[in-house]
Specification:
Layout (H helix, E strand, L loop, with lengths): L2 E2 L4 H5 L26 H16 L4 H12 L9 H11 L4 H34 L7 H8 L6 H7 L2 H8 L5 H6 L6 H12 L6 H19 L2 E3 L17 E3 L2 H9 L7 H17 L12 E4 L4 E4 L23 H14 L11 H10 L3 H12 L2 H14 L21 H11 L3 H14 L4 H8 L2 E5 L4 E4 L8 E5 L8 H22 L12 H12 L2 H4 L7 H34 L5 H19 L1 H4 L12 H4 L5 H20 L2 H9 L6 H9 L6 H13 L2
The protein binds zinc ion.
The site of zinc ion has 6 residues, from α21 and α22.
């Protein structure tokens, strides 16, 4: 579910804008103004002496640390040696009182900046996001504008960032994890403050990263397969006319829905697997991509002019009908995102590779731990047991595409129509839902006064789309619940989403308004806020006064989640392997990257999947489009599943949602493992998921 929150807006600011829609070929030459300044080492020694002379020997270590930290970011445009010395003398907080004042002022002022930028951004997007009449072209200009896009650049230029780096410690993830458990809240807040300014990536580098992301996203967005033109040896068409599937999402989802087709399902699934393998291996004929004018047999790879017409769509310019392969474009796109990301390395001293930034800055879980966690799932004894169960339910041996098995479902006790009726009666308008929020929170176990306090902070708006939650950037602003209500009243789908988004709003309220330091507002990452929102969503029927899904249904849901985690964990391992290979082979050709990706996908498959599927050398784990345009994002999915099980398990143990929810979110934006230890006693890991799977296996046999 979409959760628009700028909760760590300021942290997001420090990251390259991955989704910027900038276009054009980023051929800028990267200027390295960061190269060692000839006067720096003498100036550092001189400045250190000046600070110790002024504030005493006790301040030497702090002075050394601060000077080193600013020297890593200072460039010739920031000033000469005299300017450096002057800046240091004026801005070093040499006693505790001054340091406290400085810290508190930054905490308060950054809250104001962040909060108001969030408010401006929300207002600018109002017409685009709310159901308030036509969107005019200029509304999109407002909606696309990010008023805080240049914050980090500005903060270095005006030296707001250098003041922080001179006075507070930059930390590594390793320090935050090993020393963090003994830190005070203030120390954590200081760590978050300096993290804001731990990178100074030049605008041209950020632009190139955005361009690379945009170009590969465009490649992915246009990668459709016209399924009516996928034919078998007899020239038969298995798929309906006009069916156009985007790789990989729609192809995968079609495999899932084909389980319901008892006539042609299996043949369709096998054909899609073949299509996917051709995409990964780039043996797919270039002419069949997004082209309904040719028929293609993915098994023989034969291509012919289409014998049937189901669309006027044709690629332009027209391509000759041959089975000449796509020329490794997939891997050229991936490689460009790598090369662009690497340009930022010299400007990120604390996390000097993209892989480090991905794990240490974004995910905040060390790479080795993420790898170990994923491997723990794919090599768990539960895999064979669940696989045997699937095989029994299918009544045939597993085939590789069964990594997308979706048959762990039970029919709901209530029909969608029944539920629609109940919900529409209860919530004829968005206002009716808003008025009921305090009651809903009381039903979830929040004390009445807390329910009223939280509800008073939630503004309900009519959304254009399906709904989303929007957090605030400061304590004095409210959070927004965007929900869609039809003229006939709210329907069940809208209600189910509204309950999920309300979960986000409650988290956003508590983790902002009640936080001791603004710098610690929020949760460690989006997986946490999603898991907390699902705690609410899973209780939607109960909130309507209906009975919740029974043990059977819960067990099915768990098995479905386990199988999904097993699948996506392998995909994450491939993504990680490929990024390492790219860093190890910076000058590889796209063809070499293709060969390496195929080998990595096969290796992961052969180790963790072949024993279950009894087939070796399958490359399906490399089909995910995120691998090409999403910059090492795939490991997040598995971690998200695990976090959801940990949080849900803890809430179930506590019995009541309300007090436990409040207790958990109080930790704020500290390291994920510490947050989870405070919440459940354990760091982030798959144990809760595996335990729930064992229990589910006792229910479903
Ligand atoms: Zn969500």
């Amino acid at each position: 579910m979409r959760n628009i929150t700028l909760l760590p807006l300021i942290f997001a600011l420090a990251l390259p804008a991955l989704s910027q829609s900038a276009s054009g070929k980023g051929t800028s030459t990267m200027t390295d103004s960061h190269s060692k300044l000839p006067w720096m080492s003498a100036t550092l020694a001189k400045s250190e002496k000046a600070l110790v002379d002024k504030y005493g020997e006790a301040q030497r270590a702090r002075a050394q640390r601060g000077l080193k930290q600013i020297s890593e970011f200072w460039n010739d445009k920031d000033g000469n040696s005299a300017a450096f010395e002057e800046f240091v003398t004026a801005n070093f907080a040499g006693d505790q009182a001054t340091l406290d004042t400085m810290f508190n002022r930054y905490d308060a002022l950054l809250e104001q900046y962040n909060g108001h930028m969030q408010e401006v951004g929300r207002e600018f997007r109002t017409q685009a996001e709310l159901d308030r009449g036509p969107i005019l072209p200029f509304d999109d200009i407002f909606a696309g504008y990010d008023p805080s896009a240049h914050f980090i650049d500005d903060a270095f230029q005006n030296k707001m960032a250098f003041v922080v780096l001179l006075n507070f410690p930059l930390t590594t993830l390793d320090q935050r994890l090993t020393e963090g458990p003994n830190w005070s809240r203030r120390q954590w807040a200081e760590a978050r403050l300096t993290q804001l300014f731990s990178k100074r990536i030049p605008a041209d580098v950020n632009l190139e990263i955005a361009n690379a992301g945009a170009e590969s996203a465009k490649y992915i967005a246009e990668y459709n397969i016209w399924m009516h033109h996928v034919v078998n040896d007899k020239g038969e068409r298995l798929f309906p006319a006009k069916m156009r599937l985007l790789s990989h999402w729609n192809l995968r989802d079609e495999i899932k829905s084909d389980y319901a087709d008892t006539t042609n399902g299996l043949a369709k699934q096998r054909a899609i697997q073949q299509v996917m393998e051709r995409i990964v291996s780039q043996t797919i004929p270039a002419v069949v991509i997004d082209n309904p004018q040719v028929d293609w047999n993915p098994f023989t790879n034969e291509v012919k002019p289409a014998a049937e017409k189901d669309s006027d769509f044709a690629p332009s310019p027209k391509k000759p009908v041959t089975n000449a392969s796509e020329p490794d474009t997939r891997y050229a796109m991936l490689q460009r995102t790598y090369k662009a990301s690497k340009l930022a390395d010299p400007y990120s001293p604390a996390a000097p590779t993209f892989i480090a930034r991905s794990f240490e800055d974004n995910r905040q879980i060390p790479e080795q731990r993420v790898r170990a966690i994923l491997e723990q799932v794919v090599s768990s004894p539960e895999v064979a047991k669940v696989a045997a169960l699937i095989q029994k339910r299918l009544g045939r041996p597993l085939e590789p595409f069964d990594v997308w098995y979706n048959g762990f479902r039970v029919k709901s006790k209530y029909s969608e129509a029944e539920l629609d009726q109940i919900v529409a009666k209860k919530y004829p308008t968005a206002e009716a839902y808003r008025a009921d929020i305090p009651n809903l929170l009381v039903k979830l176990g929040f004390p009445k006064d807390r329910a009223d306090y939280i509800a008073a902070n939630i503004i309900v708006d009519p959304a254009r789309g399906s709904g989303h939650a929007m957090g605030s950037g400061m304590r004095e602003a409210k959070v927004h619940l965007r929900t869609r209500v039809e003229k006939t009243g709210m329907n069940y789908k809208g209600y189910n989403i509204a309950v999920h988004e309300m979960g986000h709003n409650v988290e956003q309220t508590l983790s902002m308004k009640d936080m001791d330091y603004w710098l610690l507002n929020g949760v460690p990452n989006t997986a946490f806020t999603e898991a907390l929102a699902f705690v609410f969503q899973a209780r939607d029927l109960e909130l309507l006064g209906l009975s919740q899904p029974d043990a059977q249904a819960e067990a099915m849901r768990t098995l479905n989640d386990f199988w999904g985690t097993y699948e996506i964990a392998g995909v994450g391992l491939v993504d990680m392997g490929v990024w390492h290979w790219m860093y190890d082979h910076p000058n590889a050709t796209p063809a070499e990257l293709k060969a390496a990706t195929i080998q990595i996908a096969k290796d992961v498959w052969n180790k963790y999947y072949a024993p279950v599927f009894h087939k070796k050398d399958v490359v399906l784990l490399a089909i995910y489009s995120h691998m090409i345009d999403s910059f090492l994002y795939l490991p997040d999915y598995s971690i998200g599943h695990m976090i959801a099980f940990q949080i849900e398990g803890q809430v179930n143990k506590a019995g009541k949602v309300g007090p436990e929810f409040e207790r958990m979110v109080k930790s704020g934006n500290i390291a994920p493992d510490l947050w989870m230890k405070n919440a459940t006693g354990q760091p982030v890991g798959p144990e809760a998921l595996l335990k729930a799977t064992d229990e589910a296996l006792n229910v479903i046999r």
